[in-house]
From TrEMBL:
PROSITE patterns: PROKAR_LIPOPROTEIN. One of its GO terms (cellular component) is plasma membrane. The lineage of its organism: Bacteria, Pseudomonadati, Bacteroidota, Flavobacteriia, Flavobacteriales. This is LPS export ABC transporter periplasmic protein LptC. It comes from Flavobacterium macacae. One of its GO terms (molecular function) is lipopolysaccharide transmembrane transporter activity.
Amino acid sequence: MISKNKFIANFLFLAIIGILVSCESNFKEVQKINMANFAPIGEADTINLKYTDSGKIKAILVAPKMFDFGNASFPYNEFPQGIDVTLYDGNEKKSFIRSDYAITYKRTSIVDLQGNVKITSEDGKILETTQLYYDQKREWFFTEKKCKLTLGPGNIFYTKGFDASRDFKDINGQAFFGEGETGEL
């Protein structure tokens, strides 16, 4: 009887070990599948995109690297090495945007610009901040971060929280301060 019980116990022990080992192997395979599903569906190097509407150029986007995550539940494009954008208004006036990093969200048409964000208008207005959002549908910039706004020589303002039209004709700040009152960005 003792040898039969030992045999059954050893058999059950080996069966349980076999099941546990096979489960771990399957778990690792499932992890690999999930990682593959979050990989970008596209990758581009040295891109130069021109956006047109009715035969007129509306924007030019230049970036050294882009990842397309169109397969994510909330699709987006990532620009991990930054972007340079030239925006054209209806009168062919330009605005220039530069940032160290950017993400464009396809469903909302929001662009998240991060790291040394600088916008320069053709008439010399400059906005500098660490993070800025751009609503492509409304053509509107906004942020809750500190900003430096240069409207001309000697006409510099600092603000925490800012929103403005693409051409800077309409500007709203939550709290404006003169130069030196709040410190640099």
